[in-house]
Amino acid sequence: MRRIIGIGSPFGADQAGWRAIDLLSEAGLPDCELIKLDRPGSELLRYLEDIEDVVLIDAVLDGQAPGAAVRLQTDALSLAACRTSSHGFGVAEALRLAERLELLPSRLLLIGIQIGADLELIPEISKDQLLSLF
Predict the structure, then answer these.
(1) Distance separating alpha carbons of residues 10 and 50, to the nearest angstrom
(2) What average pLDDT does range 94-120 have in this prediction?
(3) For residue 30, what are the CA distances in angstroms to 46, 115, 131?
(4) Contact between 60 and 32 (Cβ < 8 Å)
(5) Which of 26, 75, 41, 81 lies closest to 58, judged by CA?
(6) Residues 6+ apart with CB under 8 A from 53
(7) pTM reported for the whole predicted model
(8) How are beta strands 32-38 and 107-114 bridged, if at all?
(9) Which of 8, 10, 92, 114 is 20 to 30 A from 120 (CA-CA)?
């Protein structure tokens, strides 16, 4: 079983992770649990426990075309999250804590959905591009 988590909020471009989950739901991926979380902070750790395969999807602002879906390294997520997170304790911080507590799953895929400079605009995400990252 693979757990795919879209991180977001109901505000503007921060919905990108949730929109990605909607697209993946339409695709009907087998053996996947799809979850939308609203700015989970440290609660994200609950969703990393007792599972070996996790995909995290979150909005990032990294200078690429809005809507582009890209694989991220953990250190890249830290940098990108710092520039876009409106939360005090975001995904990067939760992953650092999970690593220290030895709660990271054995397979962790990080996907960033590029957003534009206007944080109110929700980017159009290419379902084919998103699926190609799996």
Answers:
(1) 28
(2) 93
(3) 23, 28, 13
(4) no
(5) 81
(6) 1, 2, 3, 105, 106, 107
(7) 0.88
(8) unpaired
(9) 92
CATH of domain 2-132: 3.40.50.1450
Q: How far is CA 80 from the centre of its chain?
A: 12
Q: Say which amino acid occupies 58.
A: D
What is d(CA 63, CA 55) in angstroms, rounded to the nearest whole number?
A: 22
* 3-state class (DSSP) for residue 12: helix
pLDDT at 87 exceeding the cut of 60: no
Q: Are 81 and 56 in contact (CB under 8 A)?
A: no
The dihedrals phi and psi of 104, each to the nearest 5 degrees, come to -65, 140
Alpha-helical runs (H) found in the chain? 16-27, 44-48, 74-84, 91-100, 127-132
- Region 34-47: mean pLDDT is 95
Strand partners, 72: 110
What was the pLDDT predicted at 74?
A: 66
Strand ranges of the sheet holding 69-72, from the earlier edge strand across to the other edge:
32-38, 2-8, 53-60, 107-114, 69-72
Residue with tokens 């909020």, as numbered in its chain: 9
Both tokens assigned to 24: 């993946």
